[in-house]
From TrEMBL:
Residues 2-158 form the N-acetyltransferase domain. GO terms for molecular function: acyltransferase activity, transferring groups other than amino-acyl groups. Transmembrane segments: none annotated. PANTHER family: AMINOALKYLPHOSPHONATE N-ACETYLTRANSFERASE-RELATED (PTHR43877:SF2), AMINOALKYLPHOSPHONATE N-ACETYLTRANSFERASE-RELATED-RELATED (PTHR43877). The keyword Acyltransferase applies. It holds the Pfam family Acetyltransf_1. It comes from the Bacteria. The keyword Glycoprotein does not apply. Keywords: Acyltransferase, Transferase. This is GCN5-related N-acetyltransferase.
Amino acid sequence: MWSVEPAAPADAGEVLAVTQRAFRPYQAKYPVAPEPLQDTLERVREDIDRGRVWVARSGSRVIGAVRVRPLGDRNGAWEIYGLAVDPEFSQLDVGTSLVRAVEDRLRRQGARALHLQTGLRDAPAIEFWYRVGYRPYRLEPDPDPAGGYDRVWFSKEW
Ligand SMILES: CC(C)(COP(=O)(O)OP(=O)(O)OC[C@H]1O[C@@H](n2cnc3c(N)ncnc32)[C@H](O)[C@@H]1OP(=O)(O)O)[C@@H](O)C(=O)NCCC(=O)NCCS
């Protein structure tokens, strides 16, 4: 069994590692690595210090992580990003538990909507977001036609 809790500073290395394991299958699909694969330990540490990272922990091991950031242009709107579940633990509800923890916390803090972007070609992720109640509202084609990383924005409001 696992628990979901706010990340501690000592989790930064494991958060980065689980993110890289989860997103690696997407790497070969695109000429430019998706944002989570370009992440650095420093940025993960900054997010943890701001209380914007949650982890799923099984024993002492981090098996999943999720992060949030404010969407600057919209009042009360936040973006979920970097949702990552260790492939060894996929399809066990870990991702759903992480999203629910973020939703509970941000709702209590007064957030009115959650948004996220995912790759149009990242079919398992799109299935996942539908399943947890998010709906697409905007397609954002990759400005570089050779890049092929077209994004879909999803949101949930309450
Ligand atoms: C997408 C991801 C977060 C799902 O995490 P998870 O813990 O496996 O998901 P859960 O067990 O909570 O939910 C499972 C649901 O997600 C979807 N899903 C997960 N993996 C899937 C796959 N390989 N193929 C199709 N659907 C999939 C399905 O809707 C599934 O529901 P079902 O079992 O009833 O079919 C995880 O696979 C992951 O880290 N992927 C790589 C990184 C990524 O895409 N992150 C999100 C980017 S925005």
